[in-house]
Amino acid sequence: RKEVEQDPGPFNVPEGATVAFNCTYSNSASQSFFWYRQDCRKEPKLLMSVYSSGNEDGRFTAQLNRASQYISLLIRDSKLSDSATYLCVVNRGGADGLTFGKGTHLIIQP
Amino acid sequence: NAGVTQTPKFRILKIGQSMTLQCAQDMNHNYMYWYRQDPGMGLKLIYYSVGAGITDKGEVPNGYNVSRSTTEDFPLRLELAAPSQTSVYFCASSYLRGGQETQYFGPGTRLLVL
User: Fold this and answer.
1) Is the CB of residue B33 less than 8 Å away from at least one CB of chain A?
2) Per-residue pLDDT tens digits for A43-82
3) What span, in angstroms and rounded, lies between the C-alpha atoms of A82 and A97?
4) Chain B contacts of A32, Cβ < 8 Å?
5) Computed over its alpha carbons, how large is the radius of gyration of chain B?
6) Which residues of A touch B58 (CB under 8 A)?
7) CA-CA to A35 of 20 to 30 Å: which in A15, A46, A50, A93?
8) Nearest Cα to B49, choosing from B64, B30, B35, B63?
């Protein structure tokens, strides 16, 4: 099983719709979790951290299920500007940084 | 506050040539990282550093070297370029806070080895 696994998509979604995608991780000792956003030919940027109790930031909601080892991201009222690749990222807690999934490609269509 | 800067933005190398990718950050972060991202793939860690004078290998260190003489700078050296090193290279830095770790990325260096 890969360390961090995501459906690569693409997800083609009409503007205004709600879209959700999941990510699974293999290391049960993982300590912290994030969603990063990467636009085409740009660097990844932090979208939001994912907390055990779930957290919301505007139209974005992130959930963590430690028992099943998955993380989800929900985007409500999607905008054209949400089109990007969303990277699921896990920190095992060591000094060697983060483990990145390959990303889920999202295309919001007008 | 420029964040993380990388130079050059783009470079073409011939097989066997060497080059240094520069990375600098002005946020006084202790941790710095080098990743490579191949098309359609996730980022893979090449090397990282937890502070000046300390470096360690990541997942894919072969063919690369690093140094960290100052907190600000973390250059990546390719000694004998190979076509397999064609990739986009991202440098990142972070200030580790109790396990919650936001990494800040530079804009990347696109490298083509022919």
Assistant:
1) yes
2) 999 999 998 888 999 999 999 999 999 999 999 999 999 9
3) 26
4) 99-101
5) 13
6) 96-97
7) A15
8) B30
